[in-house]
Design goal:
By secondary structure, the protein is an alpha/beta fold. The strands form 2 sheets. A 7-stranded mixed beta sheet has the order 4-3-2-5-6-9-7, sandwiched between helices. A two-stranded antiparallel sheet has the order 1-8. The termini are far apart. Helix content is 32%, strand content 17%. The chain folds into 2 domains: 191 residues, Vaccinia Virus protein VP39 (Rossmann fold), CATH 3.40.50; 57 residues, Orthogonal Bundle (Helicase, Ruva Protein, domain 3).
Length: 271
C-alpha cells in the first residue's frame, strides 16, 4: 500500500513542504531576508504587500518596519502556517492568486509597495501585473532568477534587453542590487537569484499613447532579429513614415525613450 504524505499540522509546528508546481523555494537565510526587507524606503505610502511569503522568513523583518504589512499566498499550507506563527497578521493574510486578484478589493486606490521572494515560474507575469496597476505602486522590490532580474535592469544594446526592460524602465528606475546563491534556499534552485528594486518615476505618465506604446514594444521584440520596418509592417504605416531612419534599427538598439519617440511618430496613423 502506498503511504500517504503526512498533512501539515500547525499545532506540531511543522515546516511547510515546498511544492514544485508552485515554484516554491523557501528562503532560509535570515541575513538575506533582512537585506531584502531593507530595500524598500517605506516612504510615501503606509502599506506593503508581500507576494508568496511561504513560511514568513521575509515577513518577520517586514513586520519590524513602520508599515502595515499584508501578505498574499495561494498555498493553503503556507496560509495555515502564517496564521499560526504570525498572529499579528490577523485579517491581513489573503489566500488569493496575485495574478488573478483585483487588489482594489483590499486597498481601494491607496498607494502601496510590493515585495517578495517571487516564484521563478511566474515572476515575469508578476511584473506585467504590477505594470498594469503602476498608478498604485511607487516601489517594488524582490528576488527573481538572476537572469530575469538582470534583464529587467538591462540597458539598450544588450542581447538580453527586451520587452520587460523597456516597459519597466519607461515608468520606473530599475536597480539590480545583489546576487543570492542557491544555498540560501530550501530546496536550493539550480541557478543564482538576483534582488532588484524598482522606484516609480516622479512623472510616470508617458507623453504618447500608452496602450500603443505597449503594443509597439511587444510587436518589435516578438521579431527582434528584424528591423522595425519589417517587424511593424502589420501596422500598415505609410511609406513616407517607414522611410524614417528609426525604422532601420532593431528593437534592442532603442532605449525606452526612443520607443516613446517611435510611438509618437506612429500615433497619427495607428488604427
Amino acid at each position: 500500500m502506498k503511504k500517504r504524505k503526512p498533512q501539515y499540522n500547525p499545532h506540531r509546528g511543522d515546516q511547510v513542504r515546498a511544492k514544485k508546481h508552485l515554484g516554491q523555494h523557501f528562503l532560509k537565510d535570515e541575513n538575506v531576508a533582512s537585506k531584502i526587507a531593507d530595500t524598500l524606503s517605506y516612504s510615501g505610502y503606509n502599506k506593503v504587500l508581500e507576494i508568496g511569503p511561504g513560511m514568513g522568513v521575509l515577513t518577520k523583518y517586514l513586520l519590524q518596519k513602520d508599515a502595515e504589512i499584508h501578505v498574499i499566498e495561494i498555498d493553503t499550507e503556507s496560509v495555515e502556517y502564517l496564521k499560526e506563527n504570525y498572529p499579528q497578521l490577523e485579517n491581513r493574510i489573503h489566500e488569493k492568486d496575485f495574478l488573478k486578484f483585483d487588489l482594489s478589493e483590499i486597498f481601494g486606490e491607496e498607494q502601496l509597495a510590493i515585495i517578495g521572494n517571487f516564484p521563478y515560474n511566474i515572476s515575469s507575469q508578476i511584473v506585467f501585473k504590477m505594470l498594469e496597476i503602476r498608478e498604485q505602486i511607487p516601489e517594488f522590490s524582490g528576488m527573481f532568477q538572476k537572469e530575469v532580474a538582470k534583464r529587467i535592469c538591462e540597458k539598450a544594446g544588450s542581447k538580453t534587453y527586451g520587452i520587460l526592460s523597456v516597459l519597466v524602465q519607461a515608468f520606473y528606475e530599475a536597480e539590480y542590487l545583489f546576487t543570492v546563491p542557491p544555498s540560501v534556499f530550501n530546496p536550493p534552485p539550480k541557478v543564482d537569484s538576483g534582488v532588484l528594486k524598482l522606484t516609480r518615476k516622479p512623472d510616470f505618465h508617458l507623453k504618447c499613447n500608452e496602450k500603443l506604446f505597449f503594443r509597439v514594444v511587444k510587436m518589435a521584440f516578438n521579431q527582434r532579429r528584424k528591423t522595425l520596418r519589417n517587424s511593424l509592417k502589420s501596422l500598415n504605416l505609410p511609406d513616407n513614415l517607414r522611410e524614417d531612419a528609426i525604422f532601420d534599427f532593431r528593437p534592442e538598439q532603442l532605449s525606452f525613450q526612443q520607443f516613446i519617440d517611435l510611438t509618437l511618430k506612429i500615433e497619427p496613423y495607428a488604427v
